[in-house]
Amino acid sequence: MSSNAEVIVSCESCISYIPHVISRGMGYCNNTDSLVIPGEGVCEDYKKRDIQWLRKVFKEQGWLYCHTCRIHIFSLEELEKHINDLVTYGVFFDDAVYEDAYSAD
Ligand SMILES: [Zn+2]
Fold first, then answer.
1. Other beta carbons within 10 Å of 19
2. Distance, CA 64 to ligand 1 centroid (Å)?
3. H or E segment to which residue 29 belongs
4. How confident is the model at residue 94 (pLDDT cuts 50, 70, 90)?
5. How far is the CA of 103 from the centre of ligand 1 (A)?
6. What is the reported pTM?
7. C-alpha 57 – ligand 1 centre gap (Å)
8. Domains of the chain: which residue ranges?
């Protein structure tokens, strides 16, 4: 375990990134108002999502979403368990997903 391991900066770890509800390979950037593909570089306003920020958001909206486990988080204790996961304040839907959701119901 090296503490000097190269950190790959990805949109996925930015506070402006909202993951697609299904796909791990794409998301929406609230900052640039555009679709982004993690791993293709970040914009100059990249800001790393950290536990302090997540706690603040949790206090504001009362829940968070773990995209890794695909569950909502409703307590700070629960948040601690998902700290190494992709936890965001929401997910991004597109029209195709809505159609899928309706037909599956
Ligand atoms: Zn999780």
1. 23
2. 10
3. strand 27-29
4. confident
5. 27
6. 0.77
7. 17
8. 11-104
